[in-house]
Amino acid sequence: MTQRIVVAGATGYIGGNVARACVSAGLSVRVLARDPGRLPADLAGALEPFVGEVTRPETLRGLCNGADVLFSSIGMYILNRRPSLWEVDYRGNLALLDEAQRAGVGTIVFVSVLHGPEMARLSAVAQAREAVVQAIQASGLRYLIFRPTGFFNDMLHALPRIRKSGASYLVGDPNVRINPLHGLDFGEEVVRTLATGLPNNWIRSVGGPEVFTREEIARMSCQALGLSPKVRHIPLATLRLAAAVAGPFHGNFRAFLKFLEFAVTTPDMTGSPIGHRRLYDAMVECAAREPSAGRRGRSTPMRPGPRPT
Hints:
39% helix
């Protein structure tokens, strides 16, 4: 079993849950953070923070010293114009790879995207991450590459908007199949994989234990909020037009929209099932935490609906 792991991306959903799973397994966890104050509060004292930025490679010196494994889920998950996704997703991860090689790290674990090579023909998000995969494969390090389906947080972020409008909105094919994944299930799978000493150098597509259509997830979101299921469909042409308009002046946003276009038009967006946590349970828990606007500005808890069958 590995003793020390460096987690890059621990202030985000994926990396934070990987760090959490590593701590639970008794590993020594060093985390890269531009702002240590954004690290998960429940892990305070259990992590060794290292302050640095992937867009400033000189700040990474020493990050991987004494480490056995480098894990990275670093990537642009916000829609700012700067830095570009090529600066973060590509050059940032290459800087981490360089530091891992310099420090003699034995294994790198990297998170790419489902159907990465195919998606790379459409979206720069996949282009950048698959270019990193190629660099890792040429590095001489042992590598474990995960290509996950969508994560629960992608669906949970939509709940406040659904609560406000009273409906779920879908663009693209409502019959696309997906098995979304809880971040902690993913983190536990990373730990298990490192512990079992599986064969070196593999790439694996993973998802959660339940398969849904996008329509079913949209209806489930309404039910978790105690709303009658109502799904409104947006023409795919709207998404493509937005990408075309954004292209000349907002490359990150265009790349995200093209990423989304692939995801909502590819019939099978499932990966090998792992974990046990259920999407509807996570939705109900999230709905119970978020207040619903009552009359005259008062807040009342949202009432979860019945569990769908």
